[in-house]
Amino acid sequence: MSSKAKILLIYTGGTIGMMKDFETGALKAFNFSKLLQRIPELRQLDCEIETVSFENPIDSSNINPEMWDKMATIIEEHYSVYDGFVVLHGSDTMSYSASALSFMLENLAKPVIFTGSQLPIGDLRTDAKENLITAIQIASLQEKNKPVIQEVCLYFEYKLYRGNRTTKINAEHFNAFASPNFPALAESGVHLKVEQNLFFQKKSRKKLVVHKNLDTNVFVLKLFPGINEAALQSIIQIPNLKGIVVETYGAGNAPTDEWFIRALEMAVANGLQVVNVTQCSGGSVNMGQYETSTALKKLGLISGKDITTEAAITKLMYMLSQNVAASSFKTIFETSLRGELT
Ligand code: ASP
User: Fold this and answer.
1) Measured from the CB, is residue 59 less than 6 Å from ligand 1?
2) How far is the CA of 7 from the centre of ligand 1 (A)?
3) Is the distance from CB of 83 to CB of 91 less than 8 angstroms?
4) How many percent of the chain have pLDDT more than 70?
5) CA-CA to 333 of 20 to 30 Å: which in 23, 51, 211, 257?
6) Ligand 1 mean position, distance from CA 89 (Å)
7) Looking at residues 232-242, what average pLDDT do you find?
8) pLDDT at 18
9) What is the pairing mode between strands 112-115 and 84-88?
10) Which residues are tagged catalytic?
11) What's the CA-to-centroid distance between 118 and ligand 1, angstroms?
12) Topology classification of domain 5-210
């Protein structure tokens, strides 16, 4: 007997549920129950929907790892009862949250779909309805009574992406996200076109394990022509710092100045995990391709390959919280854990 899919809608905040403050004119989060009143269409969907809301919905610029723990806990506590989860989240940091949750939810066998909108749900021209309705439909997809999608995804403006491959690219367009190094998992047009061959292939059928308390002793350093020694030194000497994601140029290239290399050498010698990611929106780090990355390769920097900065920093936080042995840190980081790198 096949029953209707049960979907849990988790509202964390974001524009989708915001309204204008009468006094200031600024957008701020409002009560979730109003959100449901605004979309009676939800009742027409062929699934059972229940909702849970953050007590204080937030603009996603205020997201932090404790809130990722909250989201993970909600999913953990309701995991056995629901077939899928849709997380309503502000778009500003949605790619960070989707990346973080992908690492925190090990052996995930059900869909966790992040979505939101650029315009509030009450706005006449809102993009919220399509995003929300299709995200719920995607989370409800079942085959032989099993969820079709078994990973953390992000649905926005007709495209379903692997969450940890995404980045926010536009603050104005409805098409606000891109997945520069991995194709969309599904596209919604007249029909929903699902690319099953691209779905994350889990290696085991183990039970869900939820990892919380990510380690925030990390930093993202974006290189720029003119970066000086004092700035770099002050970063690598941050007390308790355990890891840095360095956004380098092109295929993982950086200045060859002696002071620059010496500083990174000192960081590595002090036990810092240093990850090399490219500040290009597409393509991959390939240390050794140019002379300007040979020294980085020799220092044993971790290659982020084609990972996004969002996935790199959350993977670093996750791995540091797992007390991964220093000797295997680089190998594990350079291996795909949740389909986040090629
Ligand atoms: N500032 C909002 C947020 O990220 C933007 C959005 O929801 O799209 O919460």
Assistant:
1) yes
2) 23
3) no
4) 97
5) 257
6) 7
7) 97
8) 81
9) parallel
10) 15
11) 7
12) Rossmann fold (3.40.50)
Q: What is the pLDDT of residues 171-227, one digit of tens each?
A: 999 999 999 999 999 999 999 999 999 999 877 789 999 999 999 999 999 999 999
Any ligand 1 atom below 6 A from CB of 265: no
Q: Reply yes or no on whether the pLDDT at 110 is more than 90.
A: yes
Query: Hey, which CATH number is domain 218-333, 3.40.50.40, 3.30.1050.10, 3.30.70.920, 3.40.710.10?
Result: 3.40.50.40
Equal CATH topology for 5-210 and 218-333? yes
Ligand 1 pocket check for 157: Cβ under 6 Å: no
Output the pLDDT for position 2.
Answer: 56
Q: What is the pLDDT of residues 14-24, one digit of tens each?
A: 888 887 777 88
pLDDT above 70 for 1: no
β strands within the chain, DSSP E: 5-13, 18-20, 27-29, 47-58, 84-88, 105-106, 112-115, 142-143, 146-147, 152-156, 159-162, 167-168, 177-178, 186-188, 192-194, 209-210, 218-222, 243-248, 273-278, 302-303
* Crossing angle for the helix pair 326-333 and 309-321, to the nearest 10 degrees: 150
Domain boundaries, the chain: 5-210, 218-333
